[in-house]
Amino acid sequence: MTKYTITVEPVGREVQCDEDQTILDACLRAGVWLPHSCTHGTCATCKVDKLDGEVDLGEASSFALMDFERDEGKMLTCCAKPREDVTLEADLDVDEDMEVHPVQDFTGTVVVLEDIAEQTRRLVVELDREIGFNAGQYMKFTVPAAEVDGAPVEEVDRTWSIASPPDETTRLEFHIRNVPGGRGTDGWVFGGLAKGDEVRLSGPYGRFVLRTSDDKHAILVGGGTGVAPLKSMVRHALEADGYEGDLTLYAGGRTRAWLYDVEAFRDLAEEYEAFTYRPCLSDETPEEVAASGDDPDAYAYGMVTDVIEADHQRLIGCRGYLCGPPPMVDAALKTLMSRRLFPRDIFREDFFDESDKNDSGLKSPLIKR
Fold first, then answer.
1. What is the pLDDT of residues 305-352, one digit of tens each?
2. Which of 160, 175, 229, 354 has the greatest number of C-beta atoms within 10 Å?
3. Measured at the alpha carbon of residue 89, what is the angle toward residues 88 and 92, in degrees to the nearest 5?
C-alpha cells in the first residue's frame, strides 16, 4: 500500500496517509483535529485549501464543493484521497471544552436492539475495549457487504450519534431512524442485524459537543433521533456533574408514537432541578392525548419552534444546541436568533443522509459545529 505525506499548515504537522484513505481519516487518527461534521461530502465543514499536491476529490457533493472551488484548489478532506504528497491549510481551532480523542477502530457486539418509537430503534454495542469521547460526538459503522436484488453490494460506512454519556466507556447507545431503502437502516439495522452480532465501528468523530467552560443556560433542540447526542450531553451534565448551568431539552415528534425515552427524561427532570424537559407534539392535540387516558398537560403542542417562542421572550445569555433534519435545524436556528441569541452561541448538527448529496437546497454551514 502506497503512503503519502500530508503536511497540515499553519502548524506544519506531517501525517502519513494511505492512498485509499481519506485525508480527514488519516489526520484524525494521528490526533490532528481537522474541522469536520458529516464525514460523507455533504456539509462542507471540512473544506480546506490544497496548497500543493494532487488528490482524488472522491464523492464530494457538487453543492458542498462547487466547480469553481475545485478549480481554486479547495477540497473536502472527508472525501479527498492523496495521489502524491499533499500540503493543505486548515483552521485547526479546537474548542477548549473539547478533549481531542484520536479516531480508532473498534469491534463491538450488539447487546440491545429494540424498537423504541415509530420507525426508530435503540442499538447498544459492547466494545472490545474502552473508548474516550466527548458528549455529542458520533461513531462510524461499517455496513457489511450484502446481496441486494440478486446483485452484490459492497460494504459502506454510516454514521450515528452516541446517546450514552462519556463515562460509559465500553457500552455505547445509538438511536436510529429507518430510512426506506436505506443501505444502513432498512437494509441492515432494520433488515438483518440481530442481538449477538459483531459490528465494526470507528470514532469518535464530530465537534458538536457540550461546551462546559461556562454555565450558560443550554437550550437543546432535537428532532427525531436528533435527541441522541443531546441525551449524551444531558446525562453527562447531570449525572457526572459535567455542567453547572441549567439545561432545557425540547424534543419534537409528530405524535407520541414518534417520541422515545419520555419517562427517562421526566425522571431526570424530577431528580435534577437544573433540567427541564419539553416533549412537543406537532400533529396531536391535547384532546386526542386526553382521550387516550394520558395527561395532556405533560406535553407541549405545535412545532418545536412554536413552543420555544411561547416559552422565551429573550434568550440572551443562553447557548443553543440544535440537532436533527436540516429543515428543523434551520427553523430552530431562526427562532433562537429571533430571541436575541447570537450565532456564536448556537451549535448545530444536521442529520444528512446519502440523498442529501443531490439536494441543491443545502448550503454550507455558517454556524459553529
1. 999 999 999 999 999 999 999 999 999 999 999 999 999 999 999 887
2. 229
3. 125
